[in-house]
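Risk register update: the risk that structure generation would not scale has been downgraded. Supporting records follow, first protein first.
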Amino acid sequence: MFQENEREFVKEIASKEEDFSQWYVDVIRKSDMADYSMIKGCMIIKPYGYALWENIKEALDKRIKATGHKNAYFPLFVPESLLKKEAEHVEGFAPEVAWVTHGGNDELEERLAIRPTSEAIICSAYAKWVRSYRDLPILINQWANVVRWEKVTRLFLRTSEFLWQEGHTVHRTEEEAIEETLKMLNVYKEFAETELAIPVLVGRKTDNEKFAGAKDTYAIEALATDGKAIQAGTSHNLGQHFSKVFNIKFLDEDQTEKFAWQTSWGVSTRLVGVLVMIHGDQFGLVFPPRIAPVQVVIIPIIFGETKDVVTNKVNQIGNKLRDDFRIEIDTRDYTPGWKFNEWEMKGVPIRIEVGPKDIVKNQVVVVRRDTKEKSFVRESELKNKLNLLLNDIQENLLKKALKFREENTHSTNSYDDFKDIIENKRGFIYTGWCGNNDCELKIKEETKATIRLIPLEKKEIQGEKCIYCCADAKEMVYFARAY
C-alpha cells in the first residue's frame, strides 16, 4: 500500500529556480546524505553521503599516491604556544579556533587548539626530521578531520567540523616547491573534470584572498547553477615562511645550511556540496557514474502472483552485474512509483525495471537519470549497454556543466555593466584589474563580488583597463559572487 509517510518522502522539494538555498538543503536531506546534529554547525554524514565521500577519497588518493606522496597521520591537537609561533597564520584562523582547556576534571597547563589546519603541528615535526638535503623531498598527505568554528554553516559547504585531505611537502629548492604546487593543482583539475564531471577554472588567488602564511595560493573554481562561484580545491606555495618560523633547515650539498621550501594543498567534503550544486536538478541529485555510491538500481515490477518469479529474476540479473557495477536491488515493500522517485532523488545514474512481460521477452527497461531517456535492452546485451550508458552519462554531465559555465561567463570593461551582470545575470566576469588591493576591496564592498582567480594562461592585455579605476590593467581576472 502507498502509505502517508511515502507521500511525505516524495512530495515536491523547494523550487531550484525560486529558492536555491532551500532546494540545496532539501535535496541533501531527502536523499538521505546528511542530517543536522545536536552540535550547532556540525553535521552527520549518513551512509549514502559517506559512501560518496569514500568514492571521492579513493579516486583522489590513487592520484596523490601516483605522484609519489605517502599518507600519514598527525595529532588532532595543537599546543597554543606552537600555533602562536606563526602570527600571520594564527590571525587568519583566530576567530574559528576551538580550544580544549580541560583534560577530565583537570585544567590543562596550556590550551590545545583543535586543528583548523595542520601547518603548525606538521612543521614542528619536519623541523626534527630534516637535517640534510638527503632527507628531501618530504612528500606527505593526510586524510583527517578539521574544526573551524564557523558562524554561518551549510551542509557540506561550510560546517564547523569537516573531512579533508591535506598535503604537506618540503623541498630543497624554490623551483621544486613551485613545481609541486602547480603539479597538485593540475591533479585537482584533472580529478574534478574526470571523476566529478565538473569543469573548473585554474589560477592564482590575489593577496587579499590567499591562504594565511602562503607566498602564493592557487585554486580551482567551479560555477554552481545559481550563478555563484565555488572554490573546489587549493594548492599553496608556502615559500620559506613556515620553515623560518619553525626552523626547518638542512645542510645542503655545498655544506651550507639553508631553510627549506614548502607547499600545502587540499580538498574537503565541500566537494560533495559542489557536486549537488552543479549537477542536481528539480528532481534531486544527479551523480556522475564514476563516483556515484550506486551506479545501477534494479527495481522489480510485481503484479499479483508474479512476485517470486520477478524477484528471482532481478536477483539473478543483479548477481551477474555485481562484479562490474555498484548495484542495488530494491525489493522493499513499496510501490514501484515510490521507488522510482526515491532513487531519482538519490541521483543513481541508471535504473533498471524488470516486470513479468520483460521476463517473457528476455529484456529489461533501462532509464538514465540525466536525460530520463528510456530504452529496452535484451538481457544478454545488458552489461555492454550499461558500460556504454555510464560512460555517456559521465561525458554528458561534464559537457552540460561546461556549456552552462560558458553561457554564464561574461566580459566587460564597463563598471556599470559589471554591476548589472553581477546583480541580474551572475556567473563569472572576465575583465581587467590594475593590481591595486584598494580597487579589489572597493568592488567587493560595492558588489559583493571578489576576484576568484588570476588565470595561469596569460592573454594579451595591451589596451585593457581596470574595471574600477580605469588605470592600465596589469592582470585579466575572473570576478564572481561566491560561496
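Supporting record for the second protein:
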Amino acid sequence: MSPGRDGAFEEHFFPAPDGLMLYARDYRPGNSLGARRVPIVCLAGLSRNSRDFHPLASMLVASEDASRRVIALDYRGRGRSAWDENNANYNLTIECNDVLTAMAALGIGRAAFIGTSRGGLILHLLAATRPEVIAAVVLNDIGPVIEAEGLREIACYLGRSENPRTWDDAASILRRTHGTSFPALADGDWHEMAQAIYAEREGRIVADFDPAISTQLQALDLSGPLPDLWLQFDAFRTMPVMAIRGEHSRLLSAETLEAMAKRHPDLRRFVARGQGHAPLLHRPDVYAPLLDFLRDA
C-alpha cells in the first residue's frame, strides 16, 4: 500500500489467482460515519482504468451526508495492472473473478457498485453468481442488450493509431473523436479525460491499455445481433438499481432502457443530456441523482 496523488487515495497492488498483479485506488472518507457505510466499488469500461473515477470518488468521499469509502479498479491489461501474456484472459468471467479477488484483498465483503460499460457487464455476471456481495448497482450506459453499432464505433476508435504529441493534442484528438456525442463537455472536461485515458511512457503519450484488448474486440463478428444478458439482468430484481444512459449513446438504446424498467419495476432511470457513451458521472446534472440513489445504499 502507498499514498496516491496528493494523498487523495491509497494505492494497492495484489495478485490475481493466476499471479498477475492487479491495482486499485482506495479513497477513504474523513469521518467515522462514512467508514461504516457500505463502500462503493467502481468498475471502468473496456479500455479504461481507475483514473476515470477520480473526480467522482473525490466528490463522494467529501460528501457531507453520504461520504464513504470508494474503490476504483484497474482490470488486467489496463492502467497500472499488469498486462496478461494470454490474451484469452481478457474476458468477462476472469475479470469478474478479479473483482472478487480485489474485494477479498481490500477486506470488502459487500459493496455498492458503479459499472461503466464493460464494468456493468461484469456486474451482470456478478449478480448472477455472487448476489450476496452486491448492496446496490449503478449501470452507466450499459444493459443486457449491446447495440452492434455502438461496439463497431468503439472498435473503430480504439483501432486508430493516432499518437498525441502533447497533452493538448491528446485532448484535441478526444474532442474530434467524441465531440459530436458530447456537446455538453467543455475544454476542461476533454483535458481531464485525456489524463485518464492516456499515460506517458518513455517520453511518449500512449493509450493506457494492452493493445491486445483492441485487437480482440476488432476480431468479433459484429454483423448481426449480439448475445443478450437478460437472464443475468433478472438477478438484479432483488437489488436497488440505477441505470444511466447517455442521451447520444449508440451502445445502450432507449428501447433497451425501457425494457429494463419493465423487468425491474423499481429501476431508477436517468438520461445524461448532452453526453454519449459513456457519461461522465461527476458532472453536476448526473452527480445529483446518482448521489441521491447512493444515499440509500
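The mean pLDDT is 93. On this basis the risk owner (M.S.) recommends closing the item.
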